[in-house]
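Hello again, I could really use a second opinion on something today. I've been staring at a protein lately and its backbone has me curious. You're getting the sequence in one-letter code plus the fold written as tokens. I'd be grateful if you could look everything over and explain what you see. No rush at all, and the record is pasted right below:
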Amino acid sequence: MPMALMSAPWPTGETEQASIVVYAEVTEYIKSHPKFPQRHFELRQLLREIYPYFLTYSILDRYADIRRSVRPPYGKGLIGDMDILIATTALERTLLFLQQTATLNESPN
């Protein structure tokens, strides 16, 4: 589950923000939960407090550059597309990036 929705309390007290891609990842994660409808409702309630950053051309352009830099022959190719989209949104919007995936530490950018 993405760390962005698991950490509490938030580090700053400012308005919480996240890439809209995080919603997709969390939804994927909770779909296997036996109480999915309840968990999905709770997620939607939580998202009333979080500002979603939607994908933009500038985010997608930077994503393409980062993705190319981490794929062979330039990188190991260990970082998934969704993780790159979330990280790129954080970079483009100058957001604090909370991660759970250890392979993101290997990003050259």
In short: The beta strands are 16-19, 50-53.
